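anyone else get weird line breaks when pasting these?? whatever heres mine. first is seq + tokens for prot A
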Amino acid sequence: MTGLDTIKNIAICAHSISANLGNGLAKQQVLHGVSLDIAAGQWTSIVGPNGAGKSTLLRCLAGVLPHSGTVSLFGQPLQNLPNRERARQLAWLGQNEASADDLTVWDVAMLGRLPHQAWLAPPSSADHAAVEQALRATQAWEWRSRPLGHLSGGERQRVLLARALAVQAQVLLMDEPLANLDPPHQADWLAVVQALVAQGSTVVSVLHEISMALHADRMVVMAQGRVTHHGASNDASTHAAVAEVFEHRIAIHALAGQWVALPIMRRETTR
């Protein structure tokens, strides 16, 4: 395999990423020299306990958080890409994203098409088609005329996902995308991700739902600002790494043809 072939097979390459949160005396280093290659055309899930640095790492990969080290997108340094080109290639769905409550669902989803539009140009037929496809994929089409502020938390999350899908980017990064979604709509989200990957897209998601994360092609396991393991989600070594960072309070089992993670209750010892 040539160097060019290797670059094409890697969507995101992160090298020696360190990052801080907070300011002044409250500043704290939360990532410690993380290096990571994200395979193109696959779904990679990032898991770990609270405070492991998962969301911080994802924000660094998206280029929305200052950091040391380098991040490349398909072999190009992220910092060298013009903002519009970066936004076309890489879509981002963060936690608790703000959006004007008086905007309609349609208008919010159409924001995902801004990287493809000329300055002050009206949306094209391609923009309309992309937005409709995204809203239908997230079961939000029926609300397209409703203001965002009239939706529940789960409904709002589906609209924000539609906005990210409307970009039609090669890479989609999502931070806790299942927040506020009930189990049936979590399953719908899983179907959307699997369809994207089948079409050749690259998906990276931070998930607290370990059973959902186990559906991914690959899993990045984190603890204390470092990557402790990166491997296939169905591999025994990956399952062992997940159990380790959660202090063996998670057990992964095969059930009905898929892997599921079950919590283990602490047992009080008696004297």
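and prot B, same format (seq, then tokens)
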Amino acid sequence: MKLLVAEDQSMLRDAMCQLLTFQPDVDSVLQAKDGQEAIQLLEKESVDIAILDVEMPVKTGLEVLEWIRAEKAE
């Protein structure tokens, strides 16, 4: 399983990613520091699960979710 973690607080993001990599079903974990970086990664990579912080600079997690829904609707 491929995951994306988008979180603007680097210590929290790093800790979450570290814990997720220890899970047996997790193959890789992508990291984004804000919503815009998350969208840029999602334009290039397909993920099974995206864990999005609601409040981030540039674009919020909700804006990323709207982008995902719009892209998947096409």
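btw re prot B: The CA atoms of residues 42 and 68 lie 8 Å apart. The chain has a mean pLDDT of 95.
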